Amino acid sequence: MRLVGILGGTYNPIHYGHLRMAQELAEALNLAEVRFIPSANPPHKDDVTVSAEHRAAMVELAIVNNPLFTLDRCELEREGASFTIDTLIELSESLGGDAALCLIMGSDAFVKLNTWHRWQSLLDYAHIILVQRPSTQPQEKLPSELEALLRDHYTELHGDLMHENAGFITMQNITPQDISATQVRDLLQQQTSVRYLLPNEVVEYIQQQQLYQAPA
């Protein structure tokens, strides 16, 4: 079974935290590719002021030289809210039965998974790969329904992912990269250097397009 990593997000903007995480997961789990999927209309965020096209363009610049990484525009080409379940269904149909989708998710997001649209169906179309974000504090107790989900679907055997198209949850440690898009935006508004936080090509694009400037 070919494993395809799915890494969605607003990418507002993309930074080395995203990129290093994707690279380490690709190597640790033997992923055939990682698809970066910018969210056009994220249902849980209402403060995304930079257009989806700009955010996708920055992703494309950031990953262009990595053959493992692909920009997937499926959510940009779909109307309405960018629900993950719709993306997984679309990808599973287009990639065929020899590919297993691996939805990459921060542990902080998993705590709120039961607020996602049709969250109970996610494991029908993908495995879930949980990673710990370095900046997050110890999480509150999992809701009982998510405890049950984790208990029923968890595996520590990465080989299990290759034997089924979907249905497993596993965890993977990554090298901490304490970088956030919020931090990057704040530095840009303060006209402070963001060098070494994101690729130079992305920095140049932000400057050319005059993105993330402080309000006049």
Give a short summary of the structure:
With 216 residues, this protein is α/β, with parallel strands linked by helices. The chain contains seven helices and six strands; from the N terminus they run βαβαβαβαβαβαα.
Reading off the top of the CATH hierarchy, the class is best stated as Alpha Beta
Rg result: 17 Å
Give the helices and strands as they follow along the chain: EHEHEHEHEHEHH
The fourth-level CATH homologous superfamily is: HUPs
Indicate the overall shape: globular
Mean pLDDT: 93
Describe the strand arrangement of the main beta sheet, using strand numbers: 3-2-1-4-5-6
Q: What is the level-2 CATH architecture name?
A: 3-Layer(aba) Sandwich
The biggest beta sheet is recorded as: 6 strands, parallel
Q: Give the end-to-end Cα distance, rounded to a whole number of Å.
A: 53 Å
In the predicted model, the low-confidence regions spanning at least 5 consecutive residues are: none
Based on DSSP secondary structure assignment, what is the total number of beta strands? 6
In DSSP terms (H or I, runs of 4 or more residues), the helix count works out at 7
Give the helix/strand layout.
Blueprint: E1 2-9, H1 16-29, E2 33-38, H2 52-63, E3 69-71, H3 84-95, E4 99-106, H4 107-110, E5 127-131, H5 144-153, E6 169-171, H6 181-189, H7 200-209
Parallel strand pairs: 1-2, 1-4, 2-3, 4-5, 5-6
Can you give a write-up of this model?
It is globular, with a radius of gyration of 17 Å. The chain is of the alpha/beta class. Helix 2 (52-63) packs antiparallel against helix 7. The longest helix is centred in the first third of the chain and has 14 residues, at 16-29. It is built from seven helices and six strands, in the order βαβαβαβαβαβαα. The N and C termini lie far apart (53 Å). The chain has helices at 16-29, 52-63, 84-95, 107-110, 144-153, 181-189, 200-209; strands spanning 2-9, 33-38, 69-71, 99-106, 127-131, 169-171. The model has no long low-confidence stretch (mean pLDDT 93). The protein has one domain: HUPs (Rossmann fold, 3-Layer(aba) Sandwich). Strand 2, helix 2 (52-63) and strand 3 (69-71) form a beta-alpha-beta unit. Strands 3-2-1-4-5-6 form a six-stranded parallel beta sheet, sandwiched between helices. Helices cover 33% and strands 15% of the residues.
